[in-house]
Amino acid sequence: MEEDGWTRPSSAGDSGPPALLVEQLSKRFGDRIAFDDVSFAVGHGEVFGFLGPNGAGKTTMVRTLGTLLAPSAGAAFVGGIPLAPDNGVEIRRRIAIMPESPGLYLRQSVAENLQCFADLYEVPDPTDRVRRVLRAVNLIDRAHDACSTLSRGLRQRVALARALLNDPQLLFLDEPTAGLDPVAARDVHQLITALSQRGVTIFLTTHRLEEAERLCDRVAILNTTLRTIGRPDELRERLFARTLTVRTRVALPDADRVLAGLPAVDGWRQDGPATYVITVSEHAVAAPAVTRALVAAGADVLSVSQSHHSLEDVYLELIDQDEEAGQE
Amino acid sequence: MRVSSRRVRAIFRKELRDYRHNGFIVWTMAIFPLIFLIQPLVVVFALPASASAELSHGHLLLYLLGIPAIVPAAVAAYAVVGERQQGTLEPVLTTPIRREEFLLAKALAALVPSLAIAYAVYALFLACVGLFAQPAVASALLQAPDLLTQLLFTPLVAGWSIWVGIAISARASDFRVAQQLGILASLPTAVVAALIAFNVIHATLALAIGLAAALLLGNRLGWRIMAASFDRERLITCTK
Fold it and tell me: In angstroms, rounded to a whole number, what is the distance separating the alpha carbons of residues A289 and B210?
């Protein structure tokens, strides 16, 4: 994916208000709560992942911040502008939203679709701008094809090109890689990274947790209310204890004598005939100490491994907690 | 409020391109004018020269105002619900376009082809009458006040029908239903034109001025009322 379709200079690290500030925002449709009491801030140039199960309120949040829906309560500042009906046009000038469904005029060509939106954004030199965004998403050779002839993946790329037309400060991407093959998804990932490096703030909703883990500086998990927010590694640490898993050839005759009192070891449990899960406060301190103690005790050590929890583990843990709470 | 002509043009051009490729719209634009053209032509061609005296008291030409009453309503019915059905409404509404601009562009996109068709059909009708009808019948039909009324009232009637069509389109969830309702809602205008044409309602200058003023006001209010009631949230989520 080429990068010259994007001209915004990097503004990462800009001082001033955050790119997006949400304060106790709620949205209800009658009795149904889409999201409730959600607060977070997103910095300039940050890639912010917004995760949650179906119906958690992610798309409604994007539509609300994009001025399509009016919030029921709370406040938000989008690109530093208060989210209010009178500011809708000014906010929409500064942002772009790529909805989950591409929403293209299928009877019209790719270039005609983009030209229309370039005019709606009143971008200067729209023909050149269209060419540049098409190059950015590797679709320059399909410019004159009718959108109806494109595959779902290519339509998604046209929608992404459309979202780049107005040089947005803040880009909302709702499931941008849904329906894309791995190569096309990788291209989109590269484009997101390039955009972020140029100072564009990206608000990414996705179901692909490995995508969020790879791309996002921070993630928030929403399940009507905000369940957690932070860097993926922070969330892992917050939710899961740090552990070492030790496997020996045969069970230790007196494991407590070997493992108790070692530096940075908080506790242990046996997890199988010759497997021990040791809770530690610091892997780097505990792992050598545990290994030395096992060798000194004459144990045949097969492996000492650091536990690894993915963002998916964090996500599933939180959603499971919600489901259990709901059942109670 | 500043209306951006560039944004209005963008939607206007997009609509015209879309119409060209939409068989349903093209068919609608063709079939109604044909109905309104053929039926009176058949009647006029069959009239003997002796009928001219009676014709000169009527305003048969105004029957053709049914075209700007019905065609724009049928086309405008596509305006909002068509975007919703294609899934294109949300991307458009996330741009800086104002609802007034969006609606104005949609109305103009329905108005321009409708006027072109209506005037083309009038011209064809006049040409056919001039060439093939009895000369006495032709001169009785082609009265300058009727021609002037026809020219002036066509955009007014079309404008009113368009706002009715767009209002229905913004509420409907299916294009075909919206089109049928749009045609139905525009029938009273066509019926009034027909009643004047057949002299059931006596045409006077005062009536013409009154109707023109009412239509002008209706067109102006139609835009404002539609803009005020254009609810992005309802259109996007269908929840209200």
Answer: 98
pLDDT of residue A12: 42
**Rounded-to-integer distance, Cα B29 and Cα B15, Å:** 14
A95-98 and A170-174 beta bridge pairing: parallel
A-B CB pairs within 8 A amount to 88
Give the integer Cα–Cα distance in Å for A275 and A265: 16
For chain A, helix (H) and strand (E) counts, in that order, are 11, 14
d(CA B156, CA B118): 12
pLDDT one-digit tens code per residue, B70-127: 999 989 999 999 999 999 999 999 999 999 999 999 999 999 999 999 999 999 988 9
Distance from CA of A248 to the nearest CA of B (A): 59
Q: Which residue has the tokens 């021990």?
A: A276
Those residues of chain A whose CB sits closer than 8 Å to some CB in chain B are 29-30, 63, 66-70, 89-90, 92-93, 95-97, 99, 101-108, 112, 115-117, 119-122, 159, 162, 166
Helix (H, G, I), strand (E, B) or coil at A144: coil
Distance (Å, whole) CA B225 – CA B29:
27
Residues near A72 by beta carbon (within 8 Å), at least 6 away in sequence: A26, A27, A28
Contacting residues of B for A104, CB less than 8 Å apart: 88
Which numeric CATH code is attached to A241-306? 3.30.70.100
Please give the model's pTM, rounded to 2 decimal places.
0.82
Every domain of chain A with CATH number 3.30.70.100 lies at 241-306
Domain A20-231 annotated CATH 3.40.50.300? yes
CA B164 → CA B43, B97, B169, B229, B240, distances in Å?
31, 22, 9, 13, 21
**Using CB atoms within 10 A of its CB, is residue A156 exposed (0-12), middle (13-18) or buried (19+)?**
buried
Helix (H) or strand (E) holding A269: strand A265-270
